[in-house]
Design a protein that fits this description.
The chain has about 350 residues and is of the alpha/beta class. The chain has 14 helices and 14 strands. It has a single domain, classed as 3-Layer(aba) Sandwich (Rossmann fold). A hairpin with a 5-residue loop joins strand 5 and strand 6. The chain is globular and about 55 Å long. The structure holds NADP nicotinamide-adenine-dinucleotide phosphate. NADP nicotinamide-adenine-dinucleotide phosphate binds next to helix 2, helix 6, strand 9 and helix 10. This is Cinnamoyl-CoA reductase 2-like isoform X6.
């Protein structure tokens, strides 16, 4: 670790074309790293933005790899000192048609209970193990696993308004019982990653972001972008299974995608980084978020008639800040997100 890692700057990023990974790739390239990016369909239009990044022409190489294909990952990781494991199925395509629940508030429901476990858990959990085995094979020095606040917050034993930190883990049985497959997948994958690291002498660090917003550069919209985009159109996306009455005034943890990339680079290169790092800049109720957006963009439609406060998702990034992480103002994140949606013609 340490100085050696500073010198050898060849890093593999899995799922390189996704929202979060694209910004990680951009940051690594601008810091002089050679990047091996894994994608499932190299040459596909959905990765064209990667090839346009500064220094991509000579420092970015895309590899065709699937999370369940060990051989493809071994080829992509060969020669790398580090791996940033980002790839994971995140449910977006299973969102059902809009359904009006009230005159004012439109509603989108993600039937995550309909996502078969094989679609979510296999690539997320087994895929992570396969990535780690390929890392051992290549004698990688450090793996940064992009986990999620979803692996931290979901536990019925904690008081709702309790601020969660790195020792908190979502309760897998509870996630299974409540059919929160994404929460289960991220919790299972992260815990398995640390277990594997311990048993096989592989240095594993996790970064656990909350909702990641910020400018999009990739053409295929990821879930959190869709969430904010719909939000500024006055549509609420229900993020958990089950029937909910009204729009719960949830506390959203928010972080800018560019600040997530900074956190990942810190976690990768700081010799002292260890364990997990919650990555959140702001905890804000969606009612207050709607107010803030309204003050910035009064012409958009906003949600109204919020229900009960729900503070389950309150998390803190004190540990990451001690590592030297800073984050930008929420207004900057929102303005830059909206600007990019407008530029892409998503918010006319
Ligand atoms: N966005 C957030 O708010 C947020 C918050 C917390 C944690 N995270 C985590 O951050 C990571 C990236 O999320 P994102 O928001 O950037 O989503 P995204 O844009 O949908 O990216 C997901 C990536 O995973 C890849 N992938 C999915 N299944 C795969 C498989 N079987 N084999 C290989 N690659 C596969 C996809 O590759 P293709 O390009 O080939 O389809 C895609 O690039 C995920 O691990 C997610 O859990 C995101």
């Amino acid at each position: 670790m340490g100085t050696e890692m500073e010198m050898e700057k060849r890093v593999c990023v899995t799922g390189a074309g996704g929202f979060v990974a694209s910004w990680i790739v951009k940051l690594l390239l601008s810091n002089g790293y050679i990047v091996h990016g894994t994608v499932r369909d190299p040459g596909g239009e959905k990765y064209a933005h990667l090839n346009k990044l500064e220094r991509a022409a000579y420092n970015l190489k895309l590899f065709k790899a699937d999370l369940l294909d060990y051989g493809s990952l071994v080829s992509a990781i060969a020669g790398c000192t580090g791996v940033i494991h980002v790839a994971c199925p995140v449910p977006t395509s299973t969102i059902s048609n809009p359904e009006a629940r009230s005159a004012k508030n439109k509603w989108l429901c993600i039937p995550s209970f309909l996502i078969r476990t094989v679609e979510m858990l296999e690539p997320a959990v087994k895929g992570t193990l396969i990535v780690l085995r390929a890392c051992s094979e290549a004698k990688v020095k450090r793996v940064v696993y992009i986990s999620s606040a979803a692996a931290v917050v979901k536990n019925p034993k904690w008081p709702e308004d309790w601020v969660k930190h790195e020792t908190c883990w979502s309760d897998k049985e509870y996630c299974r019982a409540t059919e929160n497959w994404y929460f289960l997948a991220k919790t299972e994958a992260e815990s398995i990653a640390f277990e594997y690291g311990k048993q096989n002498g592989l240095d594993v660090v996790a970064v656990n972001p909350s909702f990641v917003f910020g400018p999009v550069m990739q053409p295929v919209l990821n879930f959190s972008t869709l969430l904010l985009l719909k939000f500024v159109k006055g549509v609420y996306i229900q993020i958990e299974p089950g029937d909910v009455d009204g729009v719960p005034n949830m506390l959203w943890g928010i972080v800018d995608v560019r600040d997530v990339a900074d956190a990942v680079l810190l976690a990768y290169k700081k010799p002292e980084s260890e364990g997990r790092y919650i990555c959140v800049a702001y905890n804000i109720t969606i009612k207050d978020l709607a107010e803030k957006l309204k003050s910035l963009y009064p012409d958009q439609t906003y949600l109204e008639n919020f229900g009960e406060d729900d503070r389950e998702y309150c998390v803190t990034s004190e540990k990451l800040q001690k590592l030297g992480w800073t984050y930008r103002q929420l207004e900057e994140t929102l303005v830059d997100s909206i600007k990019s949606y407008k530029k892409a013609g998503l918010l006319d």
